[in-house]
Each structure stands twice: as structure tokens, then as C-alpha cells.
Amino acid sequence: MEDFKPKNVDDFINAAPKEAQEIMVKLKNLIETTEPKAEGGISWNVPIYKYNGILAGFSLAKKHVSFGIDSLTTEIRKTLEEKGYKTGKKTIQIKFDQKVPATEIKQLIEAQARLNEL
């Protein structure tokens, strides 16, 4: 996908390997249902959702999908790591054989939406 320039979120998902598509569809649906006013688009060549600023986004790596959000707290990071997810300062890596941690991601989206409203 290096030379691929997606026009929208669905283009990005459809061009990804099958094992990544299911995760990305779930992330897309989680973002869109948790914050229906969020607008999805492509920034930095990856899907980014905006709601009064950047809300969340995701990207594809070789063996995982990376979900990025600024509101990732130490508490939620610890919970996710205990469940086997690798996290960064503002990212959660979801390996192709892992389920999307929907409860935690929904909490993060809700928290980021509130922060963006300030």
C-alpha cells in the first residue's frame, strides 16, 4: 500500500490485506457510532476522523492495525497491556489474531470527543 493514495476510509480498508480489513471495519464502525458527528477522511495517507479537531485514526502495519488517539490514559493502557495488547504513548496495536478492544476504544473516543469540545 506504500504507493497507494486512498481517497477515503473505505478505499484504505478495501486495499488492505483481508486479515486487517475486519479489524479496520470494526474500528471505523466504533468511531462512527460512538461519535456520529465525526468526519472520516484521509490525512497523512491514513484514515483520520475529525470532530472539533482530530478525534482518532488507524493505520496498517505488517502484522497489526494501529489505532491512534490522544486520550489514551495510563490506566487504560495498563488494562489493554494486561489483555495482551501492545501500546504506545497514543497508540494501541491490534494484531490480526486479536479482537478489537471495543469497550476501551469506545471510552477513549468518548473522552477525546469531550476534550475536543472544550
Task: Summarize the entry for a quick read.
This protein is an alpha+beta fold.
Key features?
118 residues, alpha+beta, Aspartate Aminotransferase, domain 1, six-stranded antiparallel β-sheet
Write up this protein:
InterPro entries: YdhG-like. The chain has a single domain, classed as Aspartate Aminotransferase, domain 1, CATH 3.90.1150. 42% of the residues lie in helices and 25% in strands. Helix 2 crosses helix 4. A hairpin with a 3-residue loop joins strand 2 and strand 3. By secondary structure, it is of the alpha+beta class. A 6-stranded antiparallel sheet has the order 1-2-3-4-6-5.
Strand ordering within the main sheet: 1-2-3-4-6-5
Number of helical segments? 4
Q: Care to count the β-strands?
A: 6
Q: What is the CA-based Rg, rounded?
A: 13 Å
What is the C-level CATH assignment? Alpha Beta
Pfam family, one: DUF1801
InterPro entries: YdhG-like
Secondary structure: elements and pairs:
Elements: H1 9-15, H2 18-34, E1 39-43, E2 46-50, E3 54-60, E4 64-68, H3 74-82, E5 86-87, E6 91-95, H4 102-117
Helix pairs in contact: 2-4
Domain YdhG-like: 21-111
Pfam families: DUF1801
